[in-house]
Design brief:
With 204 residues, the chain is of the alpha/beta class. A hairpin with a 2-residue loop joins strand 9 (163-164) and strand 10. It has helices at 23-26, 36-40, 59-70, 96-120, 123-135, 143-161, 175-194, 197-203; strands spanning 4-9, 12-15, 21-22, 27-32, 43-45, 54-58, 74-77, 82-87, 163-164, 167-168. Strands 4-1-7 form a three-stranded mixed sheet. A three-stranded mixed sheet has the order 2-8-6. The chain contains eight helices and ten strands. The protein is elongated. The mean pLDDT is 83.
Length: 204
Amino acid sequence: MDKKVYIRLKSRHWSNVNETIYLHEISQVLCEGCSEYEIKHLEIGKLRTENDALQVIDSMKVVSLIQQLEGNVDVQIIGPTQTVLYVNQKISRTKPVLFVFVWLLLFIGAGLAIMYFHEDVSMQKVHIKLHTIITGEEEEFPLWLQIPYSIGLGLGMILFFNHVFKGRINDEPTPLEMEMFNYEENIDKYISVYENDAWKKGKR
């Protein structure tokens, strides 16, 4: 078998409604002994309505379409075996009142969580004890400890989340981005199993 095609599918792809999706848009393609242009521009499918919010392109469908086009060809799938197609959603403008409400809700909630934690571990008593050990005098509000601690707590959160407003401190992904990545990856895996037409037909 002289004809060989190597395919590496993307895990996900965004498309507009009724926009034709070609193989090169959802994968990397490498060909030996056959027309690379024809295979890359092989029509895979399309999202027909906005209600059809997602669709799974299975590697077996890709192999079948390539074999119909080229005949006797060895198709090898490298990497992911499905691509999940999503409809491009229109980004709505942020409503100022809703933004302020959510910001206040998160700010107050985060502040209360920190205060509850400090109360739970008796942080006030710890600061008083440290002040007594260092100076030999007992002080109810050792501000020289509490103020730097509060500033350091805020700076520590900035460093941990690796963000200052829209700017990044370094190129490393933030913990929130890592959690979102894992969440989206799990969604893709779920969809590839339960929304895959090939598996649905097999269950019937």
